[in-house]
Prior knowledge:
The chain is mainly beta and 199 residues long. It folds into 2 domains: 4-94, CATH 2.40.240.10; 100-183, CATH 2.170.120.20. The chain has 3 helices and 13 strands, in the order βαββαββββαββββββ. The protein has helices spanning 15-23, 45-52, 116-119; strands spanning 4-9, 26-32, 39-44, 62-65, 70-80, 87-94, 100-110, 123-126, 130-136, 144-147, 156-158, 169-170, 178-183. Strands 1-3-2-6-5-4 form a 6-stranded mixed β-barrel. The longest helix is centred in the N-terminal third of the chain and has 9 residues, at 15-23. The N and C termini lie far apart (57 Å).
Amino acid sequence: MVTVLRGEVRERSGKGAARAVRRAGKIPAIVYGGKEPPLKIAIDAKQLLHAMQQPRFFSTVLDIDLGDRIEHVLPREAQLHPVTDRPLHVDFVRAGAGARVTVAVPVRFVNEAECPGLKRGGVLNVVRREIELVCPADAIPSEIVADLKGFDIGDSIHIRHVVLPEGVRPRSTERDFTIASIVPPTVAEAPPAGQQAPA
Length: 199
């Protein structure tokens, strides 16, 4: 179910106009991208705050209802108040049909029980907890699954080991970057002969 935010087009810009928008219980924002010019809007503050508290806000396509039309958008950046963390301004990028967007998607590791390296006491060293992906705006994956089955101590899990959905590719130009590795267990050094280990 797509989240719908109520919004309205605003004509004025600048700090004074933005303060007036906030006093009216709205948050100034801008919608850009696609083949249309940037659009200055104001969004209902309560609705926006609720949406921002949901997981993966910045990788979820939203609908902004402007009365005469709907803008399909992806949140791109939010300027927050330094003390209250309430949004002061939000940037959205258009995510209409055929649009491709760049989003950070979390990595989930599975089959730890079938990973020889972990069973032997190795430690999973996560290099990337998220991967920036370029994908269709209407088909953003909620997560990327990395299968640890069969990996031993000293092995690395690379992007080639991950199955990406059709039409999705990493943003990184690095050919086969590392997502995680299985490293040897850390063992405390034994104290010299005749000395006791510290309590």
